[in-house]
Design goal:
19% of the residues lie in helices and 32% in strands. By secondary structure, the chain is an alpha+beta fold. The protein has a single domain, classed as 4-Layer Sandwich (Glutamine Phosphoribosylpyrophosphate, subunit 1, domain 1). The strands form three sheets. A six-stranded antiparallel β-sheet has the order 2-3-1-9-8-10, with helices on one face. A six-stranded antiparallel β-sheet has the order 4-5-6-7-11-12, covered by helices on one side. A two-stranded antiparallel ribbon has the order 13-14. It is globular.
Length: 248
Amino acid sequence: MLAVFEKTVAKCPEGLKAEAKTETVSAGSLVNEFCSARTGAVAVNLGAAGAIAFSSEKQNPLLPRLFAVVDDIFCVFEGNIENISPLKQQYGLNKTANEVVIIIEAYKTLRDRGPYPADQVVRDLHGKFAFILYDSSSRVVFVAADMEEGVPFFWGADPEGRVVFSDDLETIKTGCGKSCAPFPKGCFFTTFKGLQSYEHPLKEMKAVPRVDSQGQVCGSTFKVDESSRKEPAGMHKVDSAANWSGNY
């Protein structure tokens, strides 16, 4: 799976950008290369927001990839959710609903003034997973990975400042060069709040520079800053779902 998002919908953390300049390809070329190298791959142009690409080729049968579009919400999911039955009941879904549909429904509940904060919604997902979601109606990106790095998942910054997500490290390197890193475990990323830990929601994230075998800085990994503490965020009522999304 692959997603490239413009700065208007996903602001790339400064710490992810490496000083060393390496040869990369453009965002459009990256998506085209991804699809041409994979049989049956599908790319979705998100207009000014970016693009998402998906392929089921060479997937781990225990960690399948799924793609769905519901009410202008695009989502790519990889992995498996162990507590899928109670989540179907919680979100009022039928028995045929799979993981990617649950993610979309959980996001819709969160967006439309649901009873839980974003960190609780993701923390309720038990299993090995990574997902990329884009809501075209409110121009919101929502990305998360499990607490144990059960699914290979990476992100990076391309030369134009776009943020790139993929489960394939070589794809990330092709588009971002040295400005890439594993996506932090137990974390989620959103348009309005950037990178946050759902495992430690009251802690800030800090960038830790990565250095390769040649001594060059290769972007940063992000870890929970144990010395920090954020004020608890209460629920806020606003006039519209689109505005409410700013609270996560």
